[in-house]
Amino acid sequence: SAPSTPASVDPAPATPAPAEPGPGSPRVRRWTPRRVLVTKAAVGLPHTDEVLRRAAQAGVEEVETVGRIVPPRTANEREAYAWAKSTLAVVVAPPSARKPQPIPPSADWRIDLARGCPAHCQYCYLAGSLTGPPITRVYANLDEVLAPIAGLTGQGHVTSGTAARGHEGTTFELSCYTDPLGIEHVTGSLAAAVAQVGTGVHGDGASLRFTTKFDDVAELAALPHGGRTRARFSVNAAEVAARFDGGTAPVPARLRALATLAAAGYPVGLTIAPVMPVEGWRETYGQLLDDVRAVLAPVEAAGHPVDLTVEVITHRFTPGSRDVLMSWYPRTKLEMDVDARRAKRSKFGGVKYVYPTETMRALRSWFEAEVPARLPGTPLLYLT
Ligand code: SF4
């Protein structure tokens, strides 16, 4: 299923071009930005040099040092979107962005390697949490970003000690504000984090986790990951992905990447999201689970035990994310009708719109029955 493109925006400048396949390697989806902007503060940092090396190798010709990251002044909203989605900014993460936060139910703590994502999903989770044009900003002070891991190990709030996940130690989520694999081709941040944690640079007892809609995993597969990173693939029913994902790898390619990393010894996972109760949803999500089983069967048959988990996130939106998404994709067919939803208030007074109780109940009981039936031995960590 080819990913759809956004309804309103010509994504030509920003859509990842499928990489030229090397000898024997399958086609994978890689994002190559049109331009890389380096802030003055980031110039000369070791990870900046790595990003610039990767960008040069990827053929990026427009590289500029700037004081601040500002979109071109003449841009209208559509042009600003296209400019932002084809720009990689190399910036220094300020101390506020380096302070890990608890992030239930996914992980004990959140660590951000970057903020922003070049893909074009019409329900994008980032729409409500990041402000301004959707530029991807990668953090150049990677050592400082990863430094808190050692000190926080042992201070888990969410997953440490739970039956399904206690063996993972203290968990750190890398994909709250970006798709770390989607930008890896030109950043290298994920490989550095995985190898550092895998080889004990930050002590023992921590593990990383990330989720992605991309498939370029050859470099990760070869890393000394030490089994300390859970690679989850964000997948969906074929119809939902085909309608609403844009600029990502197609779901079958994500499943092949899942199998590749499972065979390389990574703990792996599925983030089934955003689940939508589309017509025939039981059949189409059932097919997805069956496809996962089929793609992992040869890995297990070859003698690699597969450590797979499942997380399920139903579609939701906030008033803020709805406004942003409607401005990016005004012709979207994505249902964001507050009257068809239940308003759920957070303890901080914010509101998010989730499916009505009956629908949630039906989804929950189906996934709770079908995940163990179709993927025996696989824990369903949560459904939210
Ligand atoms: Fe947003 Fe994830 Fe899609 Fe990127 S891949 S546009 S972060 S939903």
Describe this structure in words.
- The chain is of the alpha/beta class and 384 residues long.
- Helices cover 31% and strands 19% of the residues.
- The chain has 12 helices and 15 strands.
- The protein has helices at 46-57, 77-85, 142-146, 148-152, 184-187, 189-198, 218-221, 238-244, 251-263, 281-301, 319-328, 357-374; strands at residues 35-39, 62-66, 87-91, 101-103, 107-110, 114-115, 136-139, 170-173, 206-212, 229-235, 268-275, 308-314, 342-345, 351-354, 380-383.
- The protein has an 8-stranded mixed beta sheet. A 5-stranded mixed beta sheet has the order 2-1-3-7-6.
- α9 (251-263) packs parallel to α10 and α10 (281-301) packs parallel to α12 (357-374).
- The longest helix is centred in the last third of the chain and has 21 residues, at 281-301.
- The radius of gyration is 20 Å and the shape is globular.
- The two termini are 26 Å apart.
- Mean pLDDT is 91; it is low at 1-24.
Percentage of residues assigned to helices:
25-40%
Mean pLDDT: 91
Ligand identities: iron/sulfur cluster
N-to-C SSE series? Answer: EHEHEEEEEHHEHHEHEHHEHEHEEHE
Largest sheet features: 8 strands, mixed
Termini separation (Å)? 26 Å
Structural class of the secondary elements? alpha/beta
Strand order of the largest sheet: 4-5-8-9-10-11-12-15
Rg on CA atoms, Å: 20 Å
State the low-pLDDT regions, or none. 1-24
Q: What's the tally of helices?
A: 12
**Which outline best applies?**
globular
Give the beta-strand count: 15
Organism: Microlunatus flavus
Keywords: Lyase
Protein name: Spore photoproduct lyase
InterPro entries: rSAM (IPR007197), SPL (IPR049539)
